[in-house]
Amino acid sequence: MSTDHQRYSTENQAEIIEAYAARRNFEIVRTYADEGRSGLSIAGRDSLKRLIDDVQQGRADYEAILVYDISRWGRFQDADESAYYEFICRERGINIHYCAEQFDNDGSLPSTVMKNIKRAMAGEYSRELSAKVFTGQCRLIRLGYRQGGPAGYGLRRHLVNERDEPKAPLARGEHKSLQTDRVILVPGPEDEVRIVERIYRMFVLQRHSEREIAEILNHEGVTTDLGRTWTRATVRQILINEKYIGNNVYNRISNKLKRKRVVNEPEMWVRGDGAFAAIIDRELFDAAQAILAARARRFTDDELLAMLSNLLASRGELSGLLIDEDDEMPSTAAYRHRFGSLVRAYQLIGYTPDRDYRYLETNRVLRLLQRDAFEHTVERIREMAIGIEVDPQTDIIVANGEISISLVMIRCTETAAGSLRWKLRFDSRHRPDITLAVRMNPDNRTVRDYYLLPWLDVGRLATMRMGEENGIALDAYRTDDLDPLYHMLRRHPIGRAA
């Protein structure tokens, strides 16, 4: 089931399945349940994965699998996916019984036709529901209501009732309790508002770069709303976000039906202009956007390389620091994005550094990716109203005061034979309860998969070498996304027995 309040609750399903088993004289010997999990993909469906693995590895000590109905395999957008899982079971001699369907799964033509129709209907249900939810969210955006996500520095979320009357502020991680209530953004503490105004003035009037602004704020001891130091990225987010002039903008990024994340063009954005109280003057905001647009003018490859050659001629050497310090030069990020790396750009102008910087380049990318992944993970955990603390020295996350988590990005290397390898080093000093290992693809810029490794099982190891396939003993901890981690950390109510 995907939510805690619906007719598909696992308790209701269990009752129907038990009644079906009693009528057929079946004895239930094992139960697989994925509670609170989306059925759009198998990612995060640990119990379904375990069932399939038990069947394939010959550990299934049963002759039949009882399923509530066809949609409980999942509401996959490809109807053949649920058919594939059923085929795996039948191929091993295990029959599938659908307890709430009006037909027997006996392989007859009517049964086959009905199953295919039901599988397609299950996927279509998700598509229709997604469209309805998106339409409702767009309507609320245009009316000026916030749709999820943190408020951001200098702003706060505030609850209003159905008559738009203020009710109460919402702290980070808190959610509304009434369906008729709505959330708006309001100016935050005065000191934060002043910092936001100062960032715009430093950028527009004093012509400081984002990096320089971050250094100034850090030097003064000012921290972000997350209690962290400022970076170029956090300053830039304040400079480009329209919420600071009161605009409510939605659908910049789409990730519908668990499909690939898509960055939408501005014409696809959903807008509610003037929805909130502005804390930045519109003219100041527009001036900042003009500066950013002029600086982001798209140079041709030849222009970028010519500018790099001129810098080399004037300085006699090249480095990322020299490029970023020159106000007339595009940033090193522009060169990395266009040519893949700074080293490649150096090669194209015939410059060979004294050192081989490829390893350092990969390290730099991994550090940036680790910081982004860390902040995203922390934010997701907070959104679920889970108590969380972060050690600023070690970046170890402690959830609910109980579970400590360490995030590690693992570089991908290729052997001479073309095989992929990863080497993981465990934090034996702090011994986190869970090591969240992020395996990178060969480009070391995109994520391949994740491993949730408990210290109780792997703590005896200082390092771990991993291949593309590692056997069920290790790959049982593998996941395509972080949904299993969030599900594990979520608090679950436990019923009381009389």
Automatic annotation (TrEMBL):
Domain Resolvase/invertase-type recombinase catalytic: 1-148
CDD domains per UniProt: Ser_Recombinase (cd00338)
Domain Recombinase span(s) in chain numbering: 174-298
PROSITE patterns tied to this protein: RECOMBINASE_DNA_BIND, RECOMBINASES_3
GO molecular function annotations of the record: DNA binding; DNA strand exchange activity
Superkingdom, taxonomy of origin: Bacteria
Family matches, as PANTHER family: DNA RECOMBINASE-RELATED, DNA-INVERTASE FROM LAMBDOID PROPHAGE
Name under which the protein is recorded: Recombinase family protein
Source organism per UniProt: Qipengyuania pelagi
